[in-house]
Amino acid sequence: MRTGQTNRVGFTLVETVVTVGIIAALAAVVYPTVVRQFDNADPTRAAEDLGNVRTGIEAFGINVRPNQPKDIEDLANQITIAAPDSSARGALYTTSDVNNWHGPYIALSLPVTMAANDTAITTGFGAAVVNRLGLYDIGPANGGDTVSTPNAANAEFIAVRLKGLSGAAFNAINELVDGPTESTAIVRRHAGRFRCPGAAAPLDTDLCTDAYYLASPIR
Does the pLDDT value for residue 50 go beyond 50? Predict the structure, then answer.
């Protein structure tokens, strides 16, 4: 009669269930982190966010004509006739403007008391889209390629400000916005709709502390 033990082959049901449970728990922790990292480094997401703000500005400008918004917050929340609410050129809104506001013009939930430099959107590459819509001056006679011009009459565009881009991140977004034909760093940073004003002779590896998307001609 044989009395030796039989060798075990494979895993028991309990061992299998425990192993699957451990793998599922690890996946639940790791997968969202990986997805967020891909989202944060997605130039398409940044380009789409900028395009959505532009669409909102244009729709706002149609309804509240001739005024355009000073802040992204004005696209999300009902405007008022009281300061600090005002148009892009600094004029207080009128009762008629308030009645003509038919937003929201952008799919964001934003507080009504946002400061100028508050982040309205965190977009691709972890960059921040700033609440205040700047006035952008591209006229060479007035210095050219400048922002926050003290004289609104010199401004040609309402610009969306994007903070915190590396050189590579700026280039990736720029290619989507302005296309691949901008062949030098100078052209990429100082021409087209998406710009990074600063050094006269920039390098592609330079950080872009403040990028500007020329969203709409100012009226």
Answer: yes
